[in-house]
Every structure is written in structure tokens, then in C-alpha cells.
Amino acid sequence: MFTTYVIITVIAIIANAGISVADFMRTRFVLANSAEVGLPQSWLPWLGALKATGAAGLLLGLLDVRFIGIAAATGLVLFFIGAIAAHIRARVYHNIAFPGAYLGLATVSLVLAAVR
User: In angstroms, rounded to a whole number, what is the distance separating the alpha carbons of residues 75 and 15?
Assistant: First the structure.
């Protein structure tokens, strides 16, 4: 079970760190997606910071600061529930699988960290 926790959490760290960099760089797909769901561009640095903080917290969880890892995974679960809600509110369903995948990674990381 520990190996599964490490693998899933490392994937979640990489995914969240990568998408936070895309937010900070204001890549074309991030700008298009945020416009589609009605989020102002001024929010991108804040959203990127939340994702980067979540990734860092997951990393600390792997390094045996268990409560930080659990808190980070919880925060990412809530964040991506909000992202899915933004997609639903805006009726943007064609790419809802992306926040869904991030939500799945965060949820599995949270469950595995909690039972570890």
C-alpha cells in the first residue's frame, strides 16, 4: 500500500506543479479555459499558487510530515471540486475531465495518506 501511495502522490505532485507553472506562464490553453468558465485572468497567479502549495504540501507528506500531506490533499480536493463546479456553472463540459482527473489524484492521495 505504501508503494501505491508514493506512486499516486508523486503523480499528483508532478501534475499540480506542472499545471501551476502553466497558470503562472499564462499559457494559451489556460487562458482559453479560464475565459470559457468565466474566471478573470487576474486570478491565475492565485490559482497557480494554490496548486503549487498543494504540490509542495503533498511532497512534505511524502517526507513524513503526515498532517501537512493530508491538509494539502484535502485542499486540492476542495480546489478541484470548485474547478468542476465552475465548469458546471458555465456549462463547459468538453474539458471537465481535466479537473476531474486532478480531483481523482488528489482524492486518492488523501485516502492513501489518511490510511497510511
Answer: 15
- CA distance linking residue 60 with residue 45, whole number of Å: 22
Rg (Cα) of the chain, in Å, rounded?
14
Torsion of CA 63, 66, 68, 70, to 10 degrees: 120
pTM of the complete model? 0.94
How far are the Cα atoms of 25, 46, 55, 60, 78 from residue 49, in angstroms, in the given order? 12, 5, 10, 16, 15
pLDDT score, position 116: 85
Side chain identity, residue 93: Y
Cβ neighbors of 31 (< 8 A, separation 6 or more) are: 41
